[in-house]
Design a protein that fits this description.
This protein is an all-alpha fold. It is built from eleven helices and two strands; from the N terminus they run H-H-H-H-H-H-E-H-H-H-H-E-H. Helix 2 crosses helix 9, helix 4 packs antiparallel against helix 6 and helix 5 runs antiparallel to helix 6. It comes from Saguinus oedipus.
């Protein structure tokens, strides 16, 4: 197996150890995101503007990439700066920006629980676009593994956690909201399909771009996050009156921004040296971290559905990455 398939057999032990550590750190950061956001709440709401957090996260990524190039952690390419190769990353930034904003608009047309369950369809859309765009054929065994991964995500979203003393399972912290009936409008369904397609396309397109360009990863990230900062700066400025850029920020909020910035850099390494499918497994495995942290920090209870989801994720990993 190659690194792109998620395998480790072609790597020496030091590189294999670094790769494994990187995936574990990314899984932990993904899983910690929702619990950390919950710890930021004051009077039941986030005290800062979401657009501020996204903008600061993109800016932190950009500064870290620039710093790594300046200190020589990654070599600058010889010859004239390849600025022409920066243009394609504008589309990546636009796709990621559209995806992040669609998540907000989707909440108007469906309840949070429905969104959490159905959004797992992006696993299927990513796998489909991965095969079409990168001409990578998945075996029946691998297809079954991704189907199990979708099922695991849906199970966890449907009731992996519950409030102590509550008979009915509750959605994960990221989906926590005031009680409302399960519902989805026709427009909501269309937007959800669009969200899943854009999510898969942004991941696969960025992977294709990073692998085709023979540029240092830090420079590619510099291009990507420059467009990301400009795009999110426009979104922040156009979002109307509200708290200032740093207003309402606490130590927990700063930790959210830093962890998301570092995780974004780790994910870019996965896209360049691994694959979009590897990213899907990282995100799915992070559900386990999310649940454990939610139980410890937010005093939510794990349900039988959580253990079923964990079992399905483990089985999916075994099917996809196991010896064939």
């Amino acid at each position: 197996m190659s690194v792109e398939d998620g395998g480790m057999q072609g790597l020496g032990r030091p590189r294999q150890a670094r790769w494994t550590l990187m995936l574990l750190l990314s899984t932990a950061m993904y899983g910690a995101h929702a619990p950390l956001l919950a710890l930021c709440h004051m009077n039941g709401r986030v005290p800062f503007r979401p657009s501020s957090a996204v903008l600061l996260t993109e800016l932190t990524k950009l500064l870290l990439c620039a710093f790594s190039l300046l200190v020589g952690w990654q070599a600058w390419p010889e010859g004239a700066p390849p600025w022409r190769q920066a243009a394609p990353f504008a589309l990546s930034a636009l796709l990621y920006g559209a995806n992040n904003n669609l998540v907000i608009y989707l909440q108007r047309y469906m309840d949070p629980s429905t969104y959490q369950v159905l959004s797992n369809l992006k696993i299927g859309s990513t796998a489909l676009l991965y095969c079409l765009c990168l001409r990578h054929r998945l075996s029946v065994r691998q297809g079954l593994a991704l189907l199990l991964l979708m099922t695991a995500g849906a199970c966890y979203a449907a009731g992996g956690l519950q409030v102590p003393g509550n008979t009915f399972p509750s959605p994960p912290p990221a989906a926590a909201a005031s009680p409302m009936p399960l519902h989805i409008t026709p427009l909501g369904l269309l937007l959800l399909i669009l969200y899943c397609l854009i999510s898969g396309l942004s991941s696969v397109y960025t992977e294709l771009l990073m692998k085709r360009q023979r540029l240092p990863l830090a420079l590619q990230n510099l291009f990507l996050y420059t467009f990301g900062v400009l795009l999110n700066l426009g979104v922040h400025a156009g979002s109307g009156p509200g708290p200032g850029l740093l207003e309402g920020f606490s130590g927990w909020a700063a930790l959210v921004v830093l962890s998301q910035a570092l995780n974004g850099l780790l994910m870019s390494a996965v896209m360049k040296h691994g694959s979009s499918i590897t990213r899907l497994f990282v995100v799915s495995c992070s559900l386990v971290v999310n649940a454990v942290l939610s139980a410890v920090l937010l005093r939510l209870q794990l349900t039988a559905t959580f253990f079923l989801a964990t079992l399905l994720i483990g089985l999916a990993m075994r099917l996809y990455y196991g010896s064939r």
